Design the sequence.
């Protein structure tokens, strides 16, 4: 079955963005084979706030089908993505049951927590950047209960990035 | 020069204790040579809240000289430790200049942030436990500015603990 993978860069103290959404602390490591990584996925899943950041970025949707969770966006204004409102969890359940490549859960943290609570996220894969931010947008805010993980893969990059990939138990 | 090392267990999302001070999510790995680790240090540095937790623990001060930062504890009530009030940063400066083994900074996070801001902490050494807590006591709360790190050593333990040791730049 295809997996929903929360794949994200974080500071050592667990923030995925600075207090004002800053990403300037994220180190790009030339060792990382980004094309090979992207080839593992065919769908991007994200909340509205993350969607707005992705729209502004150079990288865009990386050729994938993009699904945005939002109660405020109007589908007719965003023909390039699928806007999902109330029944997002049902859609993720359907997507996981369909054949296809893996699904990249892009953020944000709050949406992660609600999907993880419904057992709809398979992995959390964090590239830990060599920085303490002290404040910012948390990796997994407002989980109702702690989630046990199993370390599945790890790699240390020369730039000092620790890539840790966990299965969510 | 001896170093001040913030050595702590944390969840993947950057908490050093649960919302009510819980430590039950911390995995002990028999692979870790605790005696060898303890032998690298001769002094424990901690805030008042951490001190109270250490007092209740079986491990205690592990044979080290213990220094507690507190404005409320009375030195006469705690003959087994050195209680430091207002001029804690000065004392840490003095300690670092004296010969001796390394100094284990035990917590809490807020005291870490204020000492790190004064450039009095040399390393942050985190044993990342395979868990997402979602809430709790942060690793480095209220840093006034982000702190860049340099990954110096790493080790993965069979229990799924990722030990990451950074120099604070």
Sequence:
């Amino acid at each position: 079955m295809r997996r929903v993978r929360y794949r994200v860069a974080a500071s050592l103290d667990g923030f995925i963005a600075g207090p004002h959404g800053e990403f300037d602390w994220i180190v790009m490591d030339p060792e990382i084979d980004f094309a090979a990584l992207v080839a593992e996925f065919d769908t991007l899943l994200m909340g509205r706030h993350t969607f707005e950041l992705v729209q502004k970025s150079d990288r865009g949707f990386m050729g994938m089908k993009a699904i945005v969770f939002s109660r405020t966006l109007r589908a007719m204004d965003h023909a390039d993505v699928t806007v999902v409102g109330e029944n997002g969890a049902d859609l993720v359940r359907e997507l996981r049951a369909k054949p296809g490549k893996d699904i990249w859960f892009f953020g944000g943290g709050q949406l992660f927590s609600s999907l993880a609570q419904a057992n709809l996220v398979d992995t959390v894969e964090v590239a830990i950047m060599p920085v303490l931010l002290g404040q910012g947008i948390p990796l997994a805010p407002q989980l109702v209960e702690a989630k046990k993980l199993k370390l599945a893969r790890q790699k240390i990059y020369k730039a000092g990035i620790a890539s840790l990939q966990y299965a969510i138990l």
Chain B touches chain A at residues 10-15, 18, 25, 113, 116, 124, 126, 128, 130-135, 138-151, 154, 156, 160-162, 164, 166, 168 (CB under 8 Å). DSSP finds four helices and eleven strands in chain B.
